[in-house]
Amino acid sequence: MQKDSLIFDLIGKELERQRNGIELIASENFTSQQVMEAMGTCPTNKYAEGYPGKRYYGGCEVVDEIETIAIDRLKKIFNASWANVQPHSGAQANTAVFMACLKPGDKILGLDLSMGGHLTHGSPANFSGKNYQALFYGVKRETGLVDYEQLEQVARTEKPKIIICGASAYSRDWDYQRIRAVADEIGALVMADIAHPAGLIAKGYLNDPFDHCHIVTSTTHKTLRGPRGGIIMLRNDFDNPWGLKDPKGNIRPMSALLDLAVFPGMQGGPLMHVIAAKAVSFAEILSDNFSLYQKQVQVNAQAMAKSFVSRGYDLISGGTDNHLMLIDLRNKNISGKKAQETLDKAHITLNKNSVPFDDKSPFVTSGIRVGVPAVTTRGMKENDMETVVNLIDRVLTNTENEKEIASVKEEVSILMKSFPLYRGLK
Ligand code: DSN
């Protein structure tokens, strides 16, 4: 069959877009070339429902080895005793945890989406809000920090079965110990969804959720810089609470219930080519270079936050501990939507984002979320953050000036030539 030039031309265009632009979407990153290569390989052809050594198909001896290596490497990264590398995404990982630990209608408690939380932590638009009774905590209006008093109060009054910590737009570290304390009081489980800061946690630059949380989920493609996917981990396995049973009616430890929830609970065949790429990225994460990278992510985020603040931008919580910042643009009289769309014209990519206590709809928003993992992968250092913020500021203060926007776009393209991406790839 002829090569599908229509699609491959578009893939080439997307590569050029990624090369020419400044990528500031906090949940995006650039995998290494070998991680990308692994994703485009023949394990994509293999059905391997089940787990290593316990599959429903023949011919799994090689993919068994791949998945076992991925699991072992992941356990080493986070000092975990059990891991499942099959979830196709972070949302699937969270779904599996809820399936393993909850019955439909049970109460869950998470950070409100409008306060920086995640869709799968109980949003009414998502399975988590439809199948379970979702309760929320928020952040404090004055500080932008998680309102732990509110979390404790809702937990004590409502007694949810699971408390979820983690966010998609929160720039500060978490007090996992405090959340575990109230969870123990009411007999709840604690799940940490570390999809965003996982890379910083892996290398010890943020608090370790495994010290206090029963179950930890993550994606693999954000700060972890692997292929797109999800993972679930336990540092210590434990007897399942509330006498939950597997489909055969047996009481099993949490690790077994989680495995069953992923497959056959809610997924069929694992994406073995992606698991191969996960394994490759896990080896990269175990290296000292990855530690240097994560340190630079944190340094860059702090430099960028300082630069925004010095230009009068209103950062929620005033700064950042991790890889991202959330900026309230109301004092600049521009909506998040307008900011995102105008910056897009200059090839600066980020996303509009609701800010806590936002008076605009989620389609418009008052804010933007800015993250540095991708530009740090391209080699940018703290001094470059000032340049990037200057370019953003020029766009945001000239949203109706097409000439200025075009001039910024030109400068962006020249700047990014100094930070090559995927050399040799077409
Ligand atoms: N869509 C991801 C993010 O941007 O944070 C979360 O799923």
Which radius of gyration do the C-alpha atoms yield?
Answer: 22 Å
Return the CATH architecture of the largest domain: 3-Layer(aba) Sandwich
Biggest beta sheet attributes: 7 strands, mixed
Query: What is the assigned CATH homologous superfamily of the largest domain?
Result: Type I PLP-dependent aspartate aminotransferase-like (Major domain)
The hetero molecules present are: D-serine
CATH level 3 topology of the largest domain: Aspartate Aminotransferase, domain 2
What is the mean pLDDT? 97
Structure in a nutshell:
With 426 residues, this protein is of the alpha/beta class. It has 15 helices and 15 strands.
Describe this structure in words.
The protein is α/β, with parallel strands linked by helices and 426 residues long. It has two domains: 34-285, Aspartate Aminotransferase, domain 2 (3-Layer(aba) Sandwich); 298-416, Aspartate Aminotransferase, domain 1, CATH 3.90.1150. 42% of the residues lie in helices and 13% in strands. The chain is built from 15 helices and 15 strands. It has a seven-stranded mixed β-sheet with strand order 4-10-9-8-7-5-6, with helices on both faces. A hairpin with a 2-residue loop joins strand 2 and strand 3 (54-55). Helix 2 (33-39) packs antiparallel against helix 10, helix 3 (61-78) runs parallel beside helix 10 (272-285) and helix 6 (148-158) runs parallel beside helix 7. The longest helix is centred in the C-terminal third of the chain and has 23 residues, at 288-310. The chain is globular and about 70 Å long. D-serine binds at residues 27, 90, 118, 168.
